Amino acid sequence: MDYIRDFDIKLDKEMYYAGETLGGHVILDTTENFKLRAVRLILRGKAHAEWKVLISGDRQTVKDDQYFIDDRACIFGKEKHDGPIPVLPRGLHTFPFKFQLPESSLPCSFESKPGYIRYYIKVTLDIPYASPPQGMKYFTIIGPHIDCMDEQYLKPLVGHDKKTTCCLWCEKGPLVITSVLERTAYVCGESIKLRTEIDNQGQDNVRLTVKLIQYVEYFIERGVLGVGKHTLLSIFNLILFRSTWSISLSGAYLEWERRYLTSY
Fold this sequence. Notes:
The protein is an all-beta fold. It is built from no helices and 17 strands. Strands 2, 5, 6, 9, 10 and 11 form a 6-stranded mixed β-sheet that branches. Strands 12-13-14-17 form a 4-stranded antiparallel β-sheet, with no helix packed on it. A 3-stranded antiparallel β-sheet has the order 1-3-8, with no helix packed on it. A hairpin with a 6-residue loop joins strand 15 and strand 16. The radius of gyration is 28 Å and the shape is elongated.
């Protein structure tokens, strides 16, 4: 519409925990007076999953939605279509709003190919005899809010493996690897420190590769049993060390830090 110069949604911040108050403003800048019945808001949290399956030889799409939040508010005008319609004078207008997020644990925001979890504010301008302009603003839910220094998370996580190549008379020396994480819980923006010990008693060169993998399981209610799907998402793949020596590498210690952790 030519008489609307600017229509925007501003939030107080971009990331929230469950139970916090979500606040912001709807900004509307107009060049002339016009009738505006109402400014309506929808706060919504939605999970969506969708993929294709083979059923009786036919390839079909299964999908499902789940809503965690579905709140509504009217921040200007009236909810019902009765009485005179107010006139909004030209100029810059700011309409504040607030929503109380549920205290219950909300799943954190998530994006992937088979599905996603998204939270957003949707604003509709109810203008008589016109197609209502709409705007959307996405925000991020993080959590659950945990204390990584809690005693239950401070126990180190140890992984150990041993591999021997060939067998019988051509058997080579074993390759032993031991890795230790300082604790079992991390939050966004935090460094992950991994300490690895390699004992290579063979003659072959070795290469150490570290992957951060996220395990995701999706489930769609379809009939009695439903349909399930799981994926392994590689967050990053890093080659930390590659031996170029022909001699054995015994008791090599490697320490590394990365800041690529997205959520817990």
